[in-house]
Design a protein that fits this description.
Strand content: 25-35%
Shape: globular
Strand order of the largest sheet: 1-5-4-3-2
Structural class: alpha+beta
Number of helices: 3
Low-confidence stretches: none
CATH topology: Alpha-D-Glucose-1,6-Bisphosphate, Chain A, domain 4
Number of strands: 5
Number of domains: 1
Helix content: 25-40%
Order of helices and strands: EHHEEEEH
Largest sheet: 5 strands, antiparallel
Radius of gyration: 16 Å
Mean pLDDT: 86
Length: 145
């Protein structure tokens, strides 16, 4: 991840997929955001819990994907408490392999943003790792049917 000095929190999760066909960043983000039911329920619970704090549900992340290139797609969601940027990167590697990565960058605007993110961070890490593994499995299964 480049230019992380402007953020209060950054992470990156990556894995190698084995595929004969190149998976572009748009496809990666689409598969990544097709969450299992337990994550959807967790996100609905989060929306109910933060409503009294003035945090809005907003659009689904999949509606906010911006394709920068074949290899990079981003999602940016900004509010008065924090700015969130999610970056999807795909990189060709050796024969029939590709690295897929998802990174998160957060900039806090106030103490409510810090408190909110501190509360959800363990869930964030679990969800990112789960969705990346699920994405890898779904891509590899669909390409080798």
């Amino acid at each position: 991840m480049k230019d992380n000095k402007n953020y209060d929190y950054t992470d990156e999760f990556s894995d190698i997929i084995h595929t004969v066909r190149f998976i572009n960043a748009a496809e990666l983000s689409g598969v990544f955001f097709s969450a299992p039911k337990w994550i959807t329920i967790l996100m609905k619970f989060r929306n109910v819990m933060v409503r009294p704090l003035g945090l809005k549900k907003g659009k689904d992340f999949s509606d906010l994907v911006h394709i920068e290139s074949e290899n990079i797609a981003t999602v940016c969601k900004n509010d008065k408490h924090l700015n969130l940027e999610i970056v999807f990167i795909t990189e060709s590697m050796e024969r029939d392999s590709q690295r897929i990565s998802v990174s998160t960058k957060v900039r806090f605007h106030n103490s409510l943003g810090k408190c909110y993110f501190a509360t959800i961070k363990p869930f964030h890490n679990l969800i990112c790792k789960t969705l990346l593994q699920r994405t890898k499995n779904n891509i590899e299964k669909s390409l080798y049917k």
